[in-house]
Sequence to fold (384 residues):
Amino acid sequence: MNKVARNALCPCGSGKKYKHCCGNNVVSIHKLIDQEVEQHMHDFIRYAAFEHESFLYQHTKLYIDQKERDEDVLMIFRFFISTWVMFFKKDIRGMTILDYYLSTIRKHHVRPSVLSILTSWKEAFPSFVQIDHMDGSFAFGTDLVTGETKQIKFLDENIDYDLELGHVITGIFVPHGQYTTCFSTFFPMPIVLSNAVRHFVQEHWEQCNKDRQQWIEQYPYIFQQSLSISLIDTDELSPKQQEVLNVLEQKANMDDVSAMDTARIVWRQYCRMKNPSIRKPEVYAAALHYLLIETVLQEEWMSQKQLAEMYGISASTLSKRIDDLYMALGDLALDLGDHLDELAEALGIDEGWDDYDDVWDDWDDDDWDDEDIFEVCEDCDEEE
Fold:
C-alpha cells in the first residue's frame, strides 16, 4: 500500500485530513472500524430495548416455553431470541428494528466504511458453525446449515474464546467486510455433543426444504431445541467411560440423534451412581445398545447373541451388564419406553410446540438491562 500524504484526505472516508485522523492514531484503520462496529452492536441492543421495548417483549415472549423454570436457560434464550426479533421480525409497516436503527444512524456522522458494514447486517443469518481452525481472533468454520465456509472475525481481541477444533457455535452471523462476525456474542455447544448437534441441524435444514427464509422463521424453535441438547448433563467422564459412548456410536451407526442423546443420559446416570472401572468398553456399549433397542430403536430389533457377536463379547457377559444397567437405573431404565415424551421434552426434540405461553408474567424492567441479560472397581465386570 502506498504511503498516504499527511495532508491528503484520510482513506477511511471520515472527510478529515490523514494527519488529523488515522495518521494521528497508532491504532490501525481496521481496528478502529472493528471498535466502532462493536460499539454499534451495543448501541443497537440499547436502542431496541428502550425504543422498541413493547414490540421486542411481545414478540420474544411468544417463543418462551412456559414450562421452563431454569433462570439461566431463560436468560440465554431471551437474549438470543430477542436478537432474532431485532433482525428478522417485521411490524405492520414491514420494518424490522434493524431497519429503524439504520434510519437513525444515517442522521449522524458515521464513518462510511462502518455504515457500509452496518447496512450489510440486513444479510444477517442465524446459523450453526463448526470450527475447523482457530487463529487468534479469527476462526475458519463450516456453516452446518448451508455448507459454506466462513471466515469469522471476533471483534473483541481481549476475550479468550477458548474454542477448539470441532466446536459448534450458534448465533446471528452478520457480514463484516470480507469476513463474518457474530452479532454481540455466540452460544457454544459442548464439544462432546458436536456430532449430535450437526445431525440435528442438518435434519432441520432438510425439513425446511433448504429454504433460507423457512430456516430463519424456524430458528427460535431450532435454537431452543439445540439449547436443550447442549444443556444435557455434561459432567466429566473418565476416558474409559467416554470410550463406551465412542464405541457405541461407532458400532451402532445410528442416524437417530435422539437415541444417542438418550444413551448419553442413561450412561451418565449410571456412571454417577456406580462409577464403574471399565476394562472392556465394548461390554457396556453393547448393553446400552440393547437398552436402546428395547426402548427407542424397536424397529431395529437384535438378540443379545447377535449384539454380543457384533461387539466381540460373550452373550453371558452382555446379559449380566444389561441386568446391572436396569437394576442400577431403576425406574428410569425400566420405564424408559413410557417416559420417551418426557425425555424428548428434556432434550428439546419433541415435535409439538403448541404449548407456548401467550402471557409472560412478572416481566421486570431489569430484565432489559444491557449489562444483565444482554451479556448472555468392578474387576469382574468384563471378560479378561
Notes: The longest helix spans residues 29-51. The chain is about 45% helix and 10% strand. The chain has three domains: 29-119, 120-228, 239-347.
